[in-house]
């Protein structure tokens, strides 16, 4: 099983990793190179509820659940759930997402309020 890193436009690895590691810790998660993440997952209909998409902060924190909008594509439903959580948490930012085996993962590539 491999590990890959999503490099967002305009964001790259530090030029000298050793120097970065020796710098004092920074206040902003964006400046420190740590990006917020949101995971979304589809839940099919049950006996009492229709299909829905749940978005949860990557650290297991707050979440939101939206009803699945049939007029939207799967990708648009996941993006809408991500946006709903971003709005709830007042994070802002520039979010890029992609499919995973369990749903979608979205990463804030900067511009958010840390």
């Amino acid at each position: 099983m491999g590990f890959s890193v999503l490099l967002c436009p305009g964001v790259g690895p530090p030029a000298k990793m050793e120097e970065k590691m020796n710098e004092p810790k920074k206040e902003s998660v964006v400046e420190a190179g740590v990006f917020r993440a949101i995971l979304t997952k589809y839940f099919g209909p049950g006996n009492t509820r229709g299909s829905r998409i749940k978005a949860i902060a990557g650290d297991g924190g707050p979440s939101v659940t939206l009803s699945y909008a049939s007029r939207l594509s799967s990708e648009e439903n996941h993006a809408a759930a991500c946006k709903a959580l971003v709005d709830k948490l007042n994070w802002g930012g520039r979010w890029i997402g992609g499919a995973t085996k369990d749903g979608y993962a979205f990463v804030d590539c900067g511009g958010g309020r840390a």
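Residues 29-108 form one domain. The radius of gyration is 16 Å.
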